[in-house]
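Why run this: before we spend reagent on co-expression, it is cheaper to look at a predicted model of the complex and decide which construct boundaries make sense. The entries below are exactly what would go into the expression plan.
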Amino acid sequence: MRSSNSYTYFFVIAMAIISALMLSVMKINLQERQEFNKALDTRKNVLKTVGALSPEMSDSDVEEFYMSKFTKQVFPDGKGGEREYYTFGLAERPEGYVFPVSGKGVWSTINGFIALEPDKNTIKGISFYDHGETPGLGGEIEKDFFSRRFVGKKIFKDGELVSVTIAKSKLLEQSEHAVDGLSGASLTTGSINRFLRDDLTEYLPLLRESDEEEALLR
Amino acid sequence: MKKTLDTFAGPLSRSNPITTQVLGICSALAVTVKMDTALVMSGALVFVLVGSNVIVSALREVIPSRVRIIVMLTIIATLVIFIDELLKAYLYDISKQLSIFVGLIITNCIVLGRAEAFALKNTVWESSLDGLGNAMGYGLILLLVSAARELFGSGSLFGFQIIPDFLYVEHGGWYVNNGLMLLAPGAFIILGLLIWLQRTINGYTEE
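The model came back. Tokens follow.
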């Protein structure tokens, strides 16, 4: 009986149903908390890009800072849809802009934020917070030592959007538009180069706006 | 009684899963940069290993032997997903740092190895002790390796600064953290030294 096919089928099916049931019940119970954590983590990363996140901040501090300093804006993406971005600081006198960027990495979709100074050219900060890249290789993109390299780089060169390129290795000569690469992460950083430029291009009308305004002011 | 004690205490040193059997090395290298991740990882393994040993042992009479490996893997995977989801809900930051390594407990040779080699043949009580002993043997090595790596690599233990600030070059001292310790080769070196030390003390040799 124990070795009959029907018993084996019965056992395996029962086993699968019981485990699936247990996991589903647990997931339903934990989902709310997990989503809250995820949302909080996203906010922490928005704060990080503008350099406002410090380790002493409690969860409610993050929440409060986020609520008081950032304003969500929407902007038509030219394909009938909308894209969100955030302004940092007061509406009349923004201290920066945070744009979500995302794209395909090697194993996963990489999500990140890029913050620009009010000149809409200089990078204030960057952060890749949600990805499934190989830990230790492509996964290093989430580390601070890597994101710090972007600070102060420029995305426009003589009025043309050139984005910032992550080099394959160490930069041979200093550039305002490129940063040192990560060894073992050529594919991941290659995709970041691609989607960073693509996403910034989508935001281009928005980025140009200020140039004209500033030109008028001048 | 002697045998029961041995089931628990053996894996802590003499038949330690990492240093003697050299299992579970991958995660031992990956999560030992900091002590807090190592501690949470060890906790997760204690939960999974005790859980899987107890369940497999309780079901050992009814599991069809032809599909036993897949059944054991289902049990292990269920427990691993359980702990992974729990970490995501209650220890989000650490779960983010552990990334895929909690999920990879499913393929940790220690877990399936103990289920197949021990839990299928022994009572629930003995299996739970065996699971606890092996998981703690794993955790012990993880904590030792991570203590060495965090102390020499970051100058701290559990995130608390141990090496005083004024010794560092940035503050006018002479000390620099050893970057090698933060990388996988650093873990290999520490692990190698531990294995050497332990085998010297126990007089263990590969035949």
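Residues 12-202 of chain B form one domain. Chain B is about 65% helix and 0% strand. Bring this page to Monday's planning discussion.
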